[in-house]
C-alpha cells in the first residue's frame, strides 16, 4: 500500500495548517478553537476560476465538484509561494458518507504528489473515526466544542439572515456576527458555553442583540437554499449564491449544519431498524438524537421569543421527508435534502434553490429527482435545481435563478395587491436597551 506523510503531533509547532472554508461562522469558530489549542491554522477563503482549473489538472474530471474545488484551492495556495511546503500541512473535514465523501483525503494525497507537494501531510477532522493515525485526534472535549460551534454557527446564520436584508444601518448584523464569533470562540476554548445553562444564556444574549438592530421590514422574496453540503454553504462552491440572492433583494434561509449532524446520528439507529445490528448502538444513537434535538428546540424557542422565525423541530422535518422518500436513502445528503425542502415549503419558504454539484449522483436523485413529488404536495412551490460544475458559467446559473425569482416576485406582488389580505409594513424598530453591541 502506498505510503503518504502523516501529520504528526509534533508538527503542531512547526507546520501551518491550511483549512478550506465552508460555513462562514462555524468554520471561523473551529479555526479559532484550533489556534487556541496551539495549532497554526489559516482558513482558505480564496475564490476565482483558477481554483477549479488547478483542481482539474490533478484529479480526474469526473470527480465530484466539491473535491475538485477543495483540492484545487489547496494546491493553488501551495503554489502561491505564501507557504513553505516543508512546513505546511492540510486539514479537511470529512463526513464519512458511503459515496465518494470518504475518499477525498486519498484524492488529495495523490493530487499533492502529482503537483510536486508529496511531502505535505494531510489531517482529517471527522466524527466517523476516519484517518485514525493522522496525528490529529478527535478528543471528547474537542467533539463537545465542535458540536457547540455547530449550534452557535446555526443560530448566527438564522438571526443574521433575518436581520441583514432589513437593517437600516447596513453592516450592523455582520458586525454582530463577527463580535459573537470572537466571543464564542474564547468561551468554547475555555470550556464555557458548552452545556445547557451556558448555551441558553448565550442563545438569549445573541437573539437579544439581533432583535435590537433597527430594521424596516419591507416585503421581500424569501428563498430557501438546500443542496449538497459543500455547494450549499461554500461561496466558492456556489459562486457566492447568498450574496447574489441578497443583491436581488431576497431574504435567504439556509437550513443549518445541525440538521446534517442529526441526519448522520439518526442514520445510526435507522440502519439497525432497517437492516438489523446492535440494539445497544441503536439505543445510544436514539438517546443522542433526543439530546441534540432538545437543545435545538431550546435554541429555536429562544429565537422565536425574540420575534424571529425558526424551523420546526428536526424530527418533524424528518417525518415530512418520510412522506416522499424512504429513510434508507442515505448516500450524499440522502433523505435530509428532500426533508429540508418539504420543511421549507411547510414553513412558507416556497421559493427554493437546490444547489447540486457536478458528479454527485446521490444528490441529483434526492434533490432534483424529488422536485416533482414536492410540487404535488405543495403546488405553489417554486424550486430551481442549479448545477455547479467547472464548465457552467456564473451568468448561466444566475439566469436560471433569476427566472425563479421572477415567478416569486409576481406571486409576492399578488399577495400584496389590495385585493389580497392586507400586509402591513412593519415600522422602524428602535434598538432596545438589551443590545450589547
Ligand atoms: S455527496 Fe455527492 S459531491 Fe459529495 S462526495 Fe458524495 S457524490 Fe461527491
Structural descriptors:
single chain; 437 residues; alpha/beta; Rossmann fold; 2 domains; 4-stranded parallel β-sheet; globular; binds iron/sulfur cluster
Describe the protein in words:
By secondary structure, this protein is of the alpha/beta class. The chain folds into 2 domains: 11-137, Rossmann fold (3-Layer(aba) Sandwich), CATH 3.40.50; 142-416, no CATH class. The protein is 51% helix and 11% strand. The protein has helices spanning 11-14, 24-36, 49-58, 65-79, 104-114, 140-163, 172-189, 196-211, 229-233, 241-247, 257-275, 279-305, 314-322, 336-346, 361-366, 371-377, 394-416; strands spanning 16-20, 40-44, 88-94, 122-126, 221-227, 250-253, 351-357, 382-388. The strands form 2 sheets. A 4-stranded parallel sheet has the order 2-1-3-4, with helices on both faces. The chain is globular. The structure holds iron/sulfur cluster. Residues 64, 66, 97, 99-101, 228, 332, 357, 360, 362-363 line the site of iron/sulfur cluster.
Write a short abstract of this structure.
This protein is α/β, with parallel strands linked by helices. It has 17 helices and eight strands. The model is unreliable at 427-437 (pLDDT under 50).
Amino acid at each position: 500500500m502506498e505510503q503518504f506523510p502523516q501529520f504528526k503531533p509534533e508538527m503542531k509547532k512547526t507546520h501551518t495548517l491550511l483549512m478550506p472554508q465552508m460555513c462562514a461562522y462555524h468554520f471561523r469558530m473551529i479555526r479559532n478553537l484550533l489556534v487556541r489549542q496551539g495549532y497554526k491554522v489559516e482558513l482558505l477563503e480564496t475564490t476565482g476560476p483558477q481554483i477549479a482549473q488547478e483542481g482539474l489538472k490533478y484529479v480526474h474530471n469526473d470527480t465530484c465538484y466539491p473535491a475538485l474545488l477543495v483540492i484545487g484551492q489547496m494546491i493553488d495556495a501551495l503554489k502561491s509561494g505564501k507557504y513553505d511546503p516543508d512546513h505546511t500541512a492540510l486539514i479537511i473535514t470529512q463526513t464519512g458518507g458511503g459515496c465518494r465523501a470518504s475518499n477525498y483525503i486519498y484524492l488529495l494525497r495523490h493530487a499533492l504528489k502529482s503537483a510536486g507537494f508529496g511531502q505535505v501531510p494531510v489531517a482529517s477532522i471527522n466524527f466517523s473515526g476516519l484517518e485514525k493515525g493522522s496525528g490529529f485526534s478527535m478528543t471528547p472535549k474537542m467533539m463537545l466544542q465542535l458540536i457547540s460551534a455547530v449550534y452557535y454557527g446555526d443560530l448566527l446564520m438564522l438571526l443574521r439572515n433575518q436581520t441583514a436584508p432589513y437593517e437600516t444601518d447596513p453592516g450592523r448584523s455582520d458586525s454582530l456576527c463577527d463580535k459573537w464569533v470572537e466571543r464564542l470562540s474564547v468561551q468554547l476554548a475555555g470550556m464555557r458555553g458548552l452545556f445547557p445553562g451556558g448555551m441558553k444564556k448565550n442563545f438569549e444574549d445573541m437573539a437579544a442583540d439581533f432583535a435590537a438592530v433597527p430594521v424596516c421590514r419591507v416585503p421581500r422574496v424569501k428563498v430557501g437554499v438546500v443542496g449538497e453540503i459543500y455547494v450549499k454553504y461554500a461561496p466558492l462552491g456556489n459562486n457566492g449564491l447568498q450574496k447574489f440572492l441578497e443583491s436581488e433583494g431576497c431574504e435567504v434561509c439556509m437550513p443549518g449544519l445541525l440538521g446534517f449532524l442529526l441526519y448522520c446520528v439518526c442514520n445510526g439507529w435507522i440502519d439497525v431498524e432497517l437492516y438489523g445490528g446492535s440494539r445497544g448502538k441503536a439505543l445510544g444513537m436514539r438517546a443522542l438524537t433526543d439530546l441534540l434535538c432538545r437543545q435545538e428546540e431550546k435554541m429555536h424557542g429562544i429565537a422565536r421569543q425574540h420575534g424571529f422565525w425558526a424551523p420546526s423541530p428536526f424530527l418533524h422535518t424528518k417525518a415530512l421527508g418520510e412522506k416522499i422518500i424512504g429513510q434508507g436513502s442515505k448516500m450524499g445528503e440522502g433523505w435530509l435534502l428532500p426533508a429540508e425542502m418539504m420543511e421549507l415549503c411547510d414553513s412558507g419558504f416556497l421559493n427554493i434553490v437546490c444547489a447540486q454539484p457536478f458528479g454527485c449522483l446521490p444528490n441529483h436523485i434526492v434533490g432534483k429527482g424529488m422536485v416533482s413529488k414536492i410540487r404535488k404536495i405543495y403546488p405553489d412551490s417554486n424550486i430551481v435545481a442549479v448545477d455547479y460544475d467547472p464548465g457552467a458559467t456564473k451568468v448561466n446559473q444566475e439566469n436560471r435563478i433569476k427566472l425563479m425569482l421572477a415567478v416569486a416576485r409576481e406571486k409576492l406582488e399578488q399577495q400584496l395587491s389590495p385585493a389580497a389580505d392586507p400586509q402591513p409594513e412593519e415600522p422602524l424598530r428602535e434598538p432596545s436597551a438589551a443590545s450589547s453591541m
